[in-house]
Amino acid sequence: MTCNQCLGIEREFDRATAQRELRRYRRDGAGRSTRVLIEALLAAGVEGCTLLDIGGGVGAIQYALLERGATSATGVDASSAYLEAAHEEAARRGLAARVRGLHGDFVRLAPTIAEADIVTLDRVICCYHDMRSLVEESARRARTLYGIVYPREAWWLRPAFAIGNLYLRLRQSPFRVFLHSQREIDAGVARHGLRKIEERDVGVWRVAVFAGR
Q: How many whole angstroms separate alpha carbon 58 and alpha carbon 126?
């Protein structure tokens, strides 16, 4: 995994962070924007579907969909600690046989990853430098539904992102956060025959679900 951003993800989202998030998830459930995405996917129908969850963290989307009829889930993450936490939780829920974890940069791994009925990227697009490749490669693999959560394109978020990146630079971390264009994200998804069926703002986050094929 040679991508500097992915090396930064591995460093920033370490075992302590993953275990802290897993404890929070077990106590409080998925965060608000994740819950909104899950509810939209369930409303569209997940029975009998396969899931590709990119940057899925501790696996909240995977468990929610599997427990409501999805057949299997593949989680791809640049953080090995998150994959370990997701495996731990899947085993605790009796879902381990239906979940597969892949470690690495999704864009580099994409040629080896099959299509899925549902593809999700929950607060992932803002953590990747090459948005166009990430969106194109992930949307290309969505047969039925494509769900994303990413930061709203608000002017007041730009200074916050700049300050955050300055802090990361001072810590000598290769990880950065990005405020990508909504228009470009939508265009990248649309190029693969997917149409937007739901969009909702949840705090600083935008939740969008696309359907197609």
A: 18
Q: Which of 126, 125, 121, 107 is nearest to 164 (CA)?
A: 126
Reported residue count of the chain is: 213
Asked whether 83 and 22 are in contact (CB, 8 A), the reply is no
In 37-109, DSSP assigns E strands to 50-54, 72-77, 99-103
Cα 34 to chain centroid, rounded: 10
pLDDT tens for each residue of 60-81? 999 999 999 999 999 999 999 9
Task: Note whether 113 and 74 are within 8 A (CB).
Answer: yes
Q: Is the pTM of this model over 0.90?
A: yes
Strand partners, 99: 73
Structural tokens at position 62:
């995977």
Amino acid at 141: R
Task: Say how many C-beta atoms besides its own lie within 10 A of residue 29's C-beta.
Answer: 13
By three-state DSSP, how is residue 80 classified? helix
3-state secondary structure (DSSP) of residue 104: coil
